[in-house]
Amino acid sequence: FVKISFTINSEYIYGNLIIILWVISIFNLLNSIKIEGYRFKRVIEYLSNYIMGIYILHPMIINILNLSYHEKGPLYAIVMWICAIVISLVCSIIISKIPKVKQFIRI
Question: What is the pTM of this model?
Answer without folding.
Answer: 0.66
